[in-house]
Automatic annotation (TrEMBL):
This is Bacterial bifunctional deaminase-reductase C-terminal domain-containing protein. It comes from the Bacteria. Signal peptide: none annotated. PANTHER family: 2,5-DIAMINO-6-RIBOSYLAMINO-4(3H)-PYRIMIDINONE 5'-PHOSPHATE REDUCTASE, DIHYDROFOLATE REDUCTASE FAMILY PROTEIN (AFU_ORTHOLOGUE AFUA_8G06820).
């Protein structure tokens, strides 16, 4: 199973700028294209409820990929669910991955935000990180990872410069998880 965590961050490790939501107002066109390719290759996407709320208007549902939104109150979103395309769940990360595996979904993309990234990383459920770093500093905003204690080590698979300004795409495999 291929479980990829994808994020775009500023140089100071923020996934959002100040009190805004989302990253589309500040990430590069090259990162947008990279993210669109990752989505196209996935057959399941996992996100937190806050990320879903922020992206709701631009999410394009498809029967080719199941989107699972984690929330502790899935009943509130019952009307928004679309069979085989959009679900709301309070299952644990491990339960979700096991269920996806049973359904034959093999290419899973974890798209955040910070709470969900930290949760899946801590549980040892991420095999690869695709981290885009935009050469910007915000000072305030949402952190890449919510504070959950863990010890993880990674091996760099590739480092690509995506544009002249120096947006970097770093790909890391997880080599140890405790
Ligand atoms: N730059 C990037 O790459 C990037 C990527 C993704 C998101 N973002 C941005 O980051 C912001 C959101 O990040 P965030 O960290 O604040 O929130 P988040 O991770 O998107 O969502 C947090 C929510 O997930 C649910 N949740 C968390 N743990 C859970 C668990 N164990 N079981 C069930 N549900 C659980 C809760 O929903 P309930 O409160 O409903 O229970 C919680 O409020 C948004 O502005 C988004 O646009 C940026």
């Amino acid at each position: 199973m291929n479980i990829i965590l994808a994020a775009v961050i500023s140089l100071d490790g923020k996934i959002t700028r100040h009190n805004e939501t989302g990253a589309i107002s500040w990430n590069s066109i090259e990162d947008k294209k990279h993210f669109a390719r990752l989505i196209a290759k996935s057959d399941a996407i996992i996100m937190g409820r806050k990320t879903y709320e922020a992206a709701r208007k631009i999410i394009v549902l498809s029967p080719r990929r199941l989107r699972i939104v984690l929330t502790r109150a899935p009943e509130k979103y019952k009307k928004e669910a679309v069979s085989r395309e959009l679900e709301f769940s309070k299952e644990s990360p491990r339960q979700i991955i096991r269920r996806l595996q049973k359904m034959g979904r093999r290419k899973i993309l974890i798209v955040g935000g910070g709470e969900i990234y930290a949760l899946f990383l801590r549980e040892g459920l991420v095999s690869r990180i695709e981290l885009t770093i935009e050469p910007k500093i915000f000072g305030t905003g949402g952190n890449f990872l919510a504070p959950l204690q863990m010890k993880k080590e990674f091996r760099l698979v590739s480092a690509r410069r995506l544009n002249r300004r120096g947006t970097l795409l770093l790909t890391y495999d997880v080599i140890s998880t405790t």
